[in-house]
């Protein structure tokens, strides 16, 4: 097996350390990227974020692929299921709630500044106003042209504007 590159090398090394410590088989391991692509390149057939889950008791010699589309919304539900919470559904869907080939509505979020909303300041060492104070929530579509040119602040658009509470930059 050849050595993976960049972020894959980090994941590979982490899994190898779990195996060396003898905790791999009993561990839940989740790897997830932050996003797949920005609005001008959002395609459901190629910009899904990576979401890798290994449950306790599972052991594979290689990654098992599933092309069922995932969203950030699936993360909390997946954590809740793996934590063994009594009602994990209250935290949203999990990757165990759908299967390959299911039709799903997925969303992406774009940061923006909306003058109708309060200013947001960063949290941490240097406090300053950031250039974003909201998120525009879009449905991920199969066609780039469906999203390009949409003004999220136009009242005619069918985009949900979500105010930021705080920003860690």
Task: Write a brief caption for the model.
This protein is 16% helix and 14% strand.
Characteristic terms for this protein:
2 domains; alpha+beta; 169 residues; three-stranded antiparallel beta sheet; two-stranded antiparallel ribbon; elongated; 16% helix
Task: Give a written overview of the molecule.
The protein is α+β, with helices and mostly antiparallel strands and 169 residues long. It has 2 domains: 6-32 and 49-91, no CATH class; 106-169, no CATH class. It has helices at residues 6-21, 73-83, and strands at residues 29-32, 51-54, 107-112, 134-139, 160-163. The strands form 2 sheets. It has a 3-stranded antiparallel sheet with strand order 3-4-5, with no helix packed on it. The radius of gyration is 19 Å and the shape is elongated. It starts with 5 loop residues before the first helix and ends in a 6-residue tail after the last strand.
